[in-house]
Amino acid sequence: MEQKLKTSEIISFSLGYMGLTLAGLFASYLSFYWTDIAIIPLAAVASIQLISRLLDGVTDIIIGFLVDKTKTKHGKARPWLLRMVIPAVLSVIGLFSMSADWSTGFKVAYAFILYNCVAFFLQTAITIPMQTLSSLMTKVAKERLKLNMTAQAFGSAMSTLGQLVVVSGIALFGGGAGGYLKFFGLTAIIAGALFMVAFKGTTEHVQAVTNKLEKMSVGEGFKLLFSNKYWVWVTLLQVTSWFFPAFMAINIYYMIWIYGDPSLMGPFMSLIFFAMFIAVLVLGPLSMKIGKGATATLGMILQVIGGLLPLFGATLPILMASAVFRGSGPAAMLGTRLAFTADVVEYGEWKTGRRTEGLIFSGTSMGQKIGMGLGGALVAVFLDIGGYVGGAATQTPAALNAIVFTFTWASALASGLAVICLAMLSRMNKMMPQILADLEERRLAAEAAAPAEETTEE
């Protein structure tokens, strides 16, 4: 019988998960830092984010392979937290160590290199092992649920509190380039300490078994992924649903240029994550009654409402109501995305006879990275089309319209694309009872045939 997880292990893992959230606070402020503090051209910002995320998506799958093949006294996933913590922290610090006095070419090259360092060391080489660690700590379904729900609560709490103090924290450290460096450097160091708590306080109780991935090349893995049509759709769901957090980069521009009060960025972002936390508690039980597809579609509808509400006026009540809807919508996707991905694993085994959880989950993580990169690039493209000038005292009406469009319509349209992906995945959902029955029949047949094969070999 599997050992129950100790409370200390659950808390240690959750603190590590909270570290991921803390270290990632910079994401919603990086575009503004580049365009208005470091003064990098918008076209370059768009190119950096898009190209980097595409590269990062590929490294997700490679790291997934490497984690599967890791064998040390600390296990498979935990060693990666130890190995990558220092380069992850240093890369975040380096990302905000730019000077506006550097030449444009040097700034663009520096931003590209350091952004990719952060993407690799923090958002891939630590994030994927942290996600994998949850499956290696216990096989018991209830224990895994408790572990992940606790970690999600810790992460949501950090998002809510962290976003509340970012703007004031940067100002406290002097504002400008120095304020960004000191604030996000400090959050990176604290996050690194939390990763070490997760490393020290957890144990991989699940014993390794023979894994066919050890004999599979990267090329074979990619071929398996792309032959699974529902993996393609669930990956596109990741791309479209992750446009929303990428589009959050426009929020600081909206608060400054449309609402005229940058200090509202903290309360607005915190309300989004608080609403997300509450919605998770409500939508979780609801999904058991109406199904994951209907729950996810409901979430996207809420997100559309949140995106379009500010078109009715830039008043404080409307702005905060928009934050509530914007936070409630993504909450519906938190668990359903993973549930759909798990179904894709079963479909892949049913279709090909090979079960590849690690590849499929790291592959959908690639979709997340592409969505974040493409979404971030689109923010820069829309601003560039509108003629936005970083660091300027005023902006043209076209630039202001570009900010409003990105803040409202762009987010709503992305949610509409996600609904199309959900509609396609609903076809697989209808097949799942038969798929699971067929897989169970195959397993029973294989178990019945095993003794006969052993006797023949003797």
Structure description:
The protein has helices at 7-23, 30-37, 42-69, 78-95, 104-121, 127-137, 141-172, 176-201, 218-227, 229-241, 243-247, 251-259, 265-290, 292-308, 316-352, 357-386, 397-457. By secondary structure, the protein is mainly alpha-helical. α7 runs antiparallel to α13. The longest helix is centred in the last third of the chain and has 61 residues, at 397-457. The model is unreliable at 208-214 and 453-458 (pLDDT under 50).
Roughly what is the average pLDDT, rounded to an integer? 88
The profile of the biggest β sheet is:
none
From N to C, what is the helix and strand string? HHHHHHHHHHHHHHHHH
Specify the number of helices.
17
Question: Given the C-alpha coordinates, what overall shape results?
Answer: globular
The percent range for strand residues is under 5%
Helix content: over 70%
Question: Could you say which structural class the secondary elements and strand pairing correspond to?
Answer: mainly alpha
Name the quaternary structure: single chain
Uncertain spans: 208-214, 453-458
Spatial extent as radius of gyration: 23 Å
| CA-CA gap between termini | 32 Å
DSSP summary, beta strand count: 0
